[in-house]
Amino acid sequence: MIQVMSGSGRSRDGSCDEYLFHQGTLYCAYRFLGCRKTGSDGSFFYTFRTWAPRADEVRLVSDFTDWERGVALTRVTDKGIWEVTVKSDVSLAGSVYKYLVIANGKGVCKGDPYAFYSKGGDDGGTVIVDEPGYTFGDEAWLAYRKKTVAASPKGHYLSAPVNIYEVHPGSFERKEDGGYLSYRELADTLVSYVKTMGYTHVELMPIAEYPFDGSWGYQVCAYYAPTSRFGTPDDFRYFVDTLHRAGVGVILDWVPAHFPKDEWGLYEFDGHPLYEYQGKDRMESRSWGTRFFDLGREEVQSFLISNALYWFREFHIDGLRVDAVASMLYLDYDRLPGEWIPNPDGGNRNLEAVAFLQKLNAVLFGEFPDVLMIAEESTSFAGVTHPVSEGGLGFNLKWNMGWANDFYDYLATDPVFRKYHHHALNFPLMYAFGENYVLPITHDEVVHGKKSLIGKISGNYEDKFRQFRCALLLQMTYPGKKLLFMGCEYAQFSEWDYKRGLEWFMLDYPIHRETREYVASLNRFYLSRPELWEVDFEGSGFGWIDADNAEGNLVSFVRRDAEGNEITVVISFSGSENTVLLPAKRGESRKILFEACGTGEERPPLHAKKVGARYAIPLTLPPFSGFVLQKEKTKPKSADIRYKKID
């Protein structure tokens, strides 16, 4: 039996929550709006709240009322919060509801913007869930995270390796019947794989509920609901906890820039533009056909900042990769001249978006100083990873998309002509320490006719694989954290297709199996060498030996750890043999630690030789090869004979 008790279920601090929500400072908005279990005296009380300021009427339609007229919500604030409380003799967990929002004589059924669980698809019905039934056991991981990501005057600095494996949950692997793996199945499959391969984090493409598979999750309708494609919210908690217990971090792709125009979602929620901008100059993306969030509106700020915190608080995730930041920052993004209005300063920056991102990161790091906030920002906007206190946006990492795009073009160029494109190898170091970068090889670059990573590379079949190894060696040894999209580790030739699983059968071919083994070895080498990750964001961690060998299609440089220990890296993208002379002192020798195209057998040390008036270590590089070397420590003499005691 259901009894409507309008207004009687409101919490005593409701007026404070209402005030903070409308001020843009309610950072736990999901505990106030939506469907919340509000009390019990042997019965079950549920309070439903939503924000719809220009609606004429809002009704709750559901399994437990009816789907035609339902029950009416009462408007409880002048700024548009509506509320109703229902009393039930039984738990309503598992029941489905929507809001029938009526405006201008038209009614539209909407999913709850604060739904924890949604049916998704074309339906969008919100499923009621009670308190989480899952208990985390990841205390050791959270303690490790606190030690390795810490606040400093320069921001939230990472003193640990970060090697991210980017995963699309729906196509990493499919069942024999073509069905999806559940969150639990994916966790059990993925955890051993990423540990064996030497990755530190898994980054999931968006998993907040989205209707259209072809959006890959980037068109979100229910921001608080892990998609039901793969299971329940507790199933997703199991996923995160399983990876954490194995020592693997979890990063989520998060989409606060825009949302789709599906009827049941946020689109014109109260019959008018509400979560989106109202002006035509800012409202919609031409390319994506989506609506941009009104980042200057206080209630939208409460919604989005609460949502970011929700994933950290409720699911223990370790970071957010924030999608499409450039689309938020620029008023002329995806617009032609005359289609946008300059800001009060006469420029093209969206000052509201800048303020929102600063506020977002300040609030997040205030509560979680040990997490990652990663910007996908494709322009040269200054200070993306600088502290908010210094005028920056406050992220602690940014994707270096300029490096990636230049490097892809370089790999696609015939080696004969690469000397004209040598800037792809040395120019990234001109700006490498202006931001805290991730060097990303992502899903965006192995789809839609762009070819897979191995497919981009110029040359014959065998040369492609040699260059592939050199390319990943360069990525792993240049300054910056690392990211590789699934399937690239074994050089899948086909482009990624979200509709099917990866082509794991390619591992039946020796060259693909050996490639994956190489990547695993490279990853483990990276993890073992502090020179490659301890000083990623300062010039003291890097030094050129030869930046300008365009004719030889090669670069050589050193990487250093915090104590000044040093390794040398030499990589050749030439189809011809090269010999380089590494500066050295008399009697000095170097040991080869790692090579891109070697047999895995240990090589004898290379010794310094006199070359003209100086000493150097000659290193011969076969076509498409790379080496990492270390100075051998000089053995101490058994006795010092420079001084003799005189009787």
Notes on the structure:
It is a single chain. Mean pLDDT is 93; it is low at 8-13 and 636-647. The chain has 13 helices and 33 strands. The strands form 8 sheets. It has an 8-stranded parallel β-barrel with strand order 13-14-17-20-21-22-23-24. Strands 25-26-27-33-29-30 form a 6-stranded antiparallel β-sheet. With 647 residues, it is α+β, with helices and mostly antiparallel strands. The protein folds into 3 domains: 2-127, Sandwich (Immunoglobulin-like), CATH 2.60.40; 166-528, Glycosidases (TIM Barrel); 539-631, Immunoglobulin-like (Sandwich), CATH 2.60.40.
Q: What is the name of the CATH superfamily of the largest domain?
A: Glycosidases
Cα-atom radius of gyration: 28 Å
What is the molecular shape? elongated
The structural domain count equals 3
- What's the CATH first level of the largest domain? Alpha Beta
Q: In percent, how helical is the residue content?
A: 10-25%
Q: What is the first-to-last residue Cα distance?
A: 110 Å
- Percent of sequence in beta strands: 15-25%
Structural class: alpha+beta
The CATH topology of the largest domain turns out to be TIM Barrel
How are strands sequenced across the largest beta sheet? 13-14-17-20-21-22-23-24
The overall strand count is 33
The residue-averaged pLDDT reads 93
Number of helices: 13
Q: Examine the secondary-structure arrangement and name the CATH architecture of the largest domain.
A: Alpha-Beta Barrel
Q: Uncertain spans, ≥5 residues at pLDDT below 50?
A: 8-13, 636-647
Main sheet, how many strands, which sense, barrel? 8 strands, parallel, barrel
